[in-house]
Amino acid sequence: MHGRIKIKSTAQQEEEKRKEREKKLKIYVSARDTCFSKRKEGILDEEALQVTQQLLSSNPDFATLWNYRREILMHLETVKEKDEVQKIYEAELAFLESCLKLNPKSYGSWHHRCWVSARLPRPDWSRELSLCDRCLSLDDRNFHCWDYRRMVVKVSGVPVAQELGFTDRLIGSNFSNYSSWHYRSTLLPLLHPESPESPSPSHEPPQPSPSHSPQTQSHRVCEEQLLKEYELVQNAFFTDPNDQSAWFYYRWLLGRAEREEMISCVYVSRDEERVAVAFSRPVNAQSVSLLLVLDGQPQKVEWKSVHPRFKHSPVCICDLPPGTISDITNEHNLTVHWTEKYTHRDCALYTGRTESWCRDSATDQELFRSELSVEKTSVLQSELQSCNQLLELEPLNKWCLLTIVLLMRALDPLGYEKETLAHFQTLKEVDPMRSAYYSDLCSKFIIENTVLKMEYAEVRVFSITDKNLTTLCHLDQLLLVTHINLSSNQLQQLPPQFAMLQCLEVLEVDNNRIENLEGVYHLPKLEEVLLKNNKISALADLQPLASCPKLRRLDLRGNPVTQAANIESELTALLPSVTDLLL
C-alpha cells in the first residue's frame, strides 16, 4: 500500500515471526495474569504500577489496566508526601506521552491523561497546551486531542481571544481543517455574543426568568463579527470550492438563533370544550408546568399530547369539564400560564362565537428567516453575487448551489422561490446519491413559503398540489387550518405530527403514495377525507379514522384495499359515522 513494494517472505522467515509472536504473547499473558491476580488480592504497590506500565506500553487501549493503575495511584496519594506525589504524576504524564506516540487516538490514554492532570498538585497547563499543539500538528483532526485541549483551556482559564487566534493559525495553514472551523464556532459566541433582544410582550418583567438568566449564553454572534467571518470563509471556499469544511461553517453562520421559549398560540373550541396550546419548541405534556385560568378561576385539567406516540410535542391539548364553556350566550376569558418560563397568553371567547384563538404568526416569530439590518442585507446580497460568480466557474459544485439556496432563503424566501426550486433540481442531477435529502429539504422550503403566503392572505386553507412533496414539517404552524389539500405529490404517510391539526375539517390527499394514516388521530372536527389513488392496502391502515367522531365522507377509490372481500361492510362497521363512502 501507499507506494511500498511488497516483499515476499520465505517459509523460514514466517516461522521465525510466528515463534517471536508466540514468545511475546506468553510474556504478555503472564504479565496480564499477574496484574489480575494482584488486583484481586488488593495489592496496590509500585511493582503493580510497573507491571501495568509494561502491558500498557504495548497495548494502551486496555481499559481494565488503566482502572487498576488509577486505583494504585490514588492509594499512593495517601501514603506519599505531596512532592513525591507530584513526581509520580509527572512520571505518569511522561509515560502517557509514550503511549500516545504508539497510538495518538487511544481513548484510554487520553482519558487517563485528563484524570492525571486533574489530580496533579501543581499542573503545568502550558506544557499540556504545547502537547496539544504537537499532536494537532501531526493530525489536525484528532478529536481526542481537541477534547483534551478544550478541557485544558477551560480549567486553566486560557483567554477565549487567544484560542480564537489559535484557530486563525490552523485555518490559515489548512482551510480543510474542519475541527478548527468547528472549534471557532464555539468560541465566537463567547467572545462576540449577539446582544440580547428586548423581552416579548407576553413576558412578565418583574419575575426573573431562568431562560434569561446571566448564565445563559447566546449561541449566536454579533453582526459586526459575523460580517468579518463571511469574508474569511469566502476566501476559503474560493480557494478550494470542493472542500466541504468551509461550506459547513458558512451554513452555521447563516443559521438563525434559537427561538425564544414561549407560548405561540392558544386555541379554544366551544363545541369540543377543548383548549390547544402551541409552543415554540416541543414540551413534555406530562410534566410541562401549565396553569389554565378561566374567568379568573384556576382549572384542574389534564394536559396531554395530541398523539400517543409523542412524549414531547409542540402542541398540547386539554379537555374542560362538560358544560364549562358550551353556552354560546356566555363570554369567557382564558389565560394559559407557562409558569416554568414566566410567560403566558390570553384568549377571549366572545358571545356567539364557537371558537377563538390568540397567536403569533410565523412572520412575527421570524420562524423561517431572521430580520436583517440594512448592512447585513447588503453583505448577504454581495455574498450571493460572489457565490453566483463562483457557480459560473464551477457549475456542478453542489456546495456552492446549496449555499446559494440558503442565502436566498435568508434574504427573501418568497422572492427567490422560483430560482430556489430550479437549483434543487440541479442539485439532484449533480449529486444523485443525495437526491432524497434534496427532495426533503425542498419540500420543507415549499411548506415554509406556503405557510407565509397563507398568513399574508389571512386564510385557514393550506394547499400544496403537484409539487413533488416527499415529507411534511412545521405542522404545528397549521393548528388553525380547516382545509388542507396535498394532492398529487409523493407523500408516503401522514405522520403522527399530523394530529396537531386540531381544527382540520377537510383533508385532500388524492394521488399520492400514502400507505397509512397514523397521523389522522382524534381530529375532533374532521368531516371529509379524500384518499383517491393511494396505496392503502389493509383495513388496519384505516383504523385511525375511527377516532374522528365527525367523519362523514371518505373517498378510497383507486386504493388496493377496495379489492378486499366484504370491504364495504367492514368499513361500515369500522366507521359508522361515515354516510358517504366511495369505493
From TrEMBL:
Residue intervals of the Rab geranylgeranyltransferase alpha subunit insert-domain domain: 263-362
Catalytic activity, EC: 2.5.1.60
GO process terms (BP): prenylation
Chain intervals for the UniProt region annotation (Disordered): 194-218
GO CC aspect terms: Rab-protein geranylgeranyltransferase complex
UniProt entry tagged with the keyword Thylakoid: no
Gene Ontology MF annotations: Rab geranylgeranyltransferase activity; zinc ion binding
Reactions the enzyme catalyzes: geranylgeranyl diphosphate + L-cysteinyl-[protein] = S-geranylgeranyl-L-cysteinyl-[protein] + diphosphate
Alphabetic keyword roster: Leucine-rich repeat, Phosphoprotein, Prenyltransferase, Repeat, Transferase
Keyword Repeat appears in the UniProt entry: yes
Residue stretches of biased makeup (Pro residues): 196-211
Function of the molecule: Catalyzes the transfer of a geranyl-geranyl moiety from geranyl-geranyl pyrophosphate to cysteines occuring in specific C-terminal amino acid sequences. Catalyzes the transfer of a geranylgeranyl moiety from geranylgeranyl diphosphate to both cysteines of Rab proteins with the C-terminal sequence -XXCC, -XCXC and -CCXX, such as RAB1A, RAB3A, RAB5A and RAB7A.
Family under the similarity heading: Belongs to the protein prenyltransferase subunit alpha family.
Protein name: Geranylgeranyl transferase type-2 subunit alpha
